[in-house]
Amino acid sequence: MHVLYFHQHFSTPEGSTGTRSYEMAQTLLARGHRVTMVCGSGQLASSGLGGAPVNGMRRGKVDGIDVVELDLPYSNYDSFLKRAWIFLLFAWRSVLLALRADCDLIFATSTPLTAGIPGIVMKLFRRKPFVFEVRDLWPELPREMGVIRNPVVLKAMDVLEWLSYHVADACIGLSPGIVKGITRRGIPAERVCMIPNGCDLELFNPSLKSRLQDIPAVGKGDFVAVFCGAHGMANGLDAVLDAAKVLKERNQKDIKLLFVGDGKLKPGLQERARLQSLDNCIFCDPMPKHKLSKLTASVDVGLMILANVPAFYYGTSPNKFFDYIASGLPVLNNYPGWLADIIEKHDCGVAVPPGEPEAFADALVFLRDNRERREQMGEKARGVAETQFDRPNLSNQFVSFLERCERDFSK
């Protein structure tokens, strides 16, 4: 089976962002399939290709994957209009590429929602089986966040969402809420499969623990909580600075809050920390997975932070959570939902209510002061990673689902 795979933000492990599509492609290859990956040029991503673009693209083999990188640079620092334009250009150029491609199945993964357009076109005009993977519920999320208010744009996104789900032969959702969101649009449950993000148990491993020598602001005896990921509106990182302010007022100088990543709101967060003398907040550049895994194994707590938006509660599957638990870190979570449910059910961290910096600070102090309890939580977190979110198991489920879709379509 030859899979034409569309992921605008695809990255190999050399990038500083999620690698789900890379891992899924590797499993497809291991099970005897071919993969052509069509992607854009992300700020934090690495397609694995080098050299200057030719006719607006780069193309070559990367670890067995035929990668087609369209020369469409994308950055979270770009304006909303510029990002929307890049999304549309990627969809348009992907359609042109798809119409000429020889393949057996189309697979497209959001975000953005426009990633589904080449799949829709191929299904309608070339009768190719199409599987659509949903990473976030659009337009529910931007509507609830207030990012998009124009009723015409919201309606257009609503129509595109409906088309993507209904034209696709099957859908994959990354969380329980996403699966419910898909079936709520009238898609039969048997055509929807939940395959969450997974844990790279070898890459992220507690055995990698060492001293944080590369971060001078962290002292030898400091207690360190880390946030890894985008610094954008959806992440709600002012909540961490609010807790940092409480800790500062309590004179809890040995608790350090480490931010690893980048995003449009990072400069503002750094400026707020400077103005309020929050020297307990330390900002680091994004780093590739092989370096990040050593850092997560060497800190004390992973911070799972999102803005208090109800659509996030069950409708996201953040990579960082799975990296934390694979590293044997207890997780401090600041919003309700399925990840908070996992934390509470398996006693692998602490879930605090959103918008309560005092409770957030209390949780950090508790975890610092109760080392044995913290280590027990970390061991349970690793256990959850091994038993429920092992990446190879989930990747094989993914490939089996695609094989079934292609087989059923061929009957």
Write the layout of secondary structure elements.
Layout: E1 2-6, H1 20-30, E2 34-42, E3 57-62, E4 65-74, H2 80-100, E5 105-109, H3 117-126, E6 130-134, H4 140-145, H5 151-167, E7 170-173, H6 176-184, E8 192-194, E9 223-228, H7 238-249, E10 255-260, H8 266-275, E11 281-284, H9 289-296, E12 301-304, H10 310-315, H11 319-326, E13 331-333, H12 338-346, E14 349-351, H13 357-369, H14 371-388, H15 391-410
Parallel strand pairs: 1-2, 1-5, 2-4, 5-6, 6-7, 7-8, 9-10, 9-12, 10-11, 12-13, 13-14
Antiparallel strand pairs: 3-4
Helix pairs in contact: 1-15, 2-3, 3-5, 7-13, 11-14
What can you see in these coordinates?
By secondary structure, the chain is of the alpha/beta class. The chain has two domains: 2-198 and 390-410, Glycogen Phosphorylase B (Rossmann fold); 206-388, Glycogen Phosphorylase B (Rossmann fold, 3-Layer(aba) Sandwich). It has helices at 20-30, 80-100, 117-126, 140-145, 151-167, 176-184, 238-249, 266-275, 289-296, 310-315, 319-326, 338-346, 357-369, 371-388, 391-410, and strands at residues 2-6, 34-42, 57-62, 65-74, 105-109, 130-134, 170-173, 192-194, 223-228, 255-260, 281-284, 301-304, 331-333, 349-351. It has an eight-stranded mixed beta sheet with strand order 3-4-2-1-5-6-7-8, with helices on both faces. Helix 1 (20-30) links the parallel strand 1 and strand 2 (34-42). Helix 11 crosses helix 14 (371-388). The longest helix has 21 residues, at 80-100. It is globular, with a radius of gyration of 21 Å.
